[in-house]
Amino acid sequence: MSLAPRVVVVHRRTELEELLERHGTRGQARFFLSTRGRDLAEVEERYEAQQAALRSVEAAIPVDWRRGRVERGDLSRFLFADDDVVVSVGQDGLVANVAKYLAGQPVIGVDSSPGRSVGVLVPHRAEAVADLLHHPGAVAEHTMVRALTDDGQELHALNEVYVGHPSHQTARYELDAGAAEHQASSGLVVASGTGATGWCRSLWLERHSSLVLPAPTAPDLAWFVREAWPSPATATTATEGLLAAGTTLRLRVESERLVCFGDGIEDDRLDLTWGQQVTVGASERHLRLVVG
User: Fold this and answer.
1) Which of 66, 138, 187, 230 is most exposed, with minimal Cβ within 10 Å?
2) C-alpha to C-alpha distance for 245 and 127, rounded to whole angstroms
3) Domains and their CATH numbers in the chain
4) Is 115 or 127 the better-scoring residue by pLDDT?
5) Whole-model pTM?
């Protein structure tokens, strides 16, 4: 007899919850916000919207199905099963946060505060979940990024991978993007088509790049070197480009310490030391996003 499906609901602590943890009471939180020209009512409104969305999603799970719930901060310690169905309740970024811990499980993105998020990764309302659990419809496979070190450590990300100094100071390394070049910069960003709407896009716009950024389901990646510095020992020839399917970038560390992390989660990172190499390219994993 096979087990019933398990639905894992992923959420993130709201600003109200963080304020109460820090200040203890609503009164203290209200006073703190007022000193900064803000009103507690708007924070409470977003909290209530998220709670209503969570209640609606959990009510939509059939009573004979298994269920789980995990907060963003606990994702690295949560064990997803191969046959899980993941429902992410929040903003676009939460889907990116959970994607790196999955291995092909379908994800239903639910926007808990319509109008506050772009909605690229959370196209659904909570009321649609009941039907989507039984009839998911089309699934889009979003390309992800993988970083692999020469000692076998690896990291996967949906939006982008960053390699650089842990405090974003000058990083020194050798970059091989077809030809090796010694560089000193604020770090390297390698992004998927999904990430091309975020950090990658801001880099692209800032330098008026002529690159055509990839689509979320395209196998290509885009990469940018931040603030490369020319000197007698370092060059700035290779500062942006596209990685076609199957191609990679190689970076060899020439600093005491660099880090590699994905999607802005700095606590879940790879620590790189002098002489260590990291290869970045498209991951064999994909985010399987239910689009209906």
Assistant:
1) 138
2) 38
3) 6-136 (3.40.50), 144-284 (2.60.200.30)
4) 127
5) 0.88
